[in-house]
Amino acid sequence: MIDLNHGSGAQYGPPAPLPDITASLGAVIDTALRLRNGAERPRSYVSSSGLGRACLRQIQYDFLAVAKDAGQEFAPKTLRIFEAGHRGEDMVAGWLRLAGFDLRTERADGRQFGFSSLGGRFKGHIDGCLVSGPVAMDYPALWETKALGASSWKDTVKRGVAVSKPVYAAQIALYQAYLDLPHPALFTALNRDTMELYAELVPFDAALAQQMSDRAVTVVRASQAQDLLPREAAAPTSVVCKGGMAAGHWHPPCAWAKRCWRDA
Q1: 220, 118 in Cβ contact below 8 A?
Q2: Helices in 40-149 by DSSP H: which ranges?
Q3: For the segment 69-91, what is each residue's pLDDT rounded down to a tens digit?
Q4: pTM of the full structure
Q5: Helix axes 206-224, 56-63, angle to 10 degrees
Q6: What are the helix and strand counts (H, E) for the chain?
């Protein structure tokens, strides 16, 4: 240690350790994220982003804004992942424009492009539409993008979006149908860990779009009639309820599983 008072005879001890600020910083950020998420108004419509989920009752609970089971609200880590996904979307959009694509992502008033049906009870909002670009493909084309963790991204690259991510495929088919964009959609996936970019042209699947549209009608009509739709699972131990892999697809834990089986 340097003696700044050389010759003074003063003795210096080791510096006092600094407090571990990680936990304190994380706590205040987590609280802020929870408060912001709790202040958001719940959706009052069937969203195209969730119609590809396996269980109709789960979709109905979401549509009706039924309170989730205790402890099933999004954890702060999940909220951070969601936000990273939104930022990843903005990055990829910027890269596409930098490369020379004419990409339209919002209207003049700043709102996303989208569709509304069933008196506003069924809606969807697209990431964007490619009007022209330097890559040989059919225009205009729907653009849909996701930011994925490494293992999920690798599985998408290996098996393609329709097989690896059927929920995304359903979303794409609905957008192509309702926004009259029948050309193959450009799906891009950003690896959050390595920043690698995967791209795939997804042909319009009219049968899938019709199936998903019919599901939306089923959910809305059953809710109007106060009918509870059947659950997908035969037991609460099913991966559709508790979460896990089944038939090569990941199912997140159902946020209404306890309520669902209690209602039984």
Answers
A1: yes
A2: 56-63, 76-98
A3: 888 888 888 888 888 888 889 99
A4: 0.86
A5: 60
A6: 9, 10
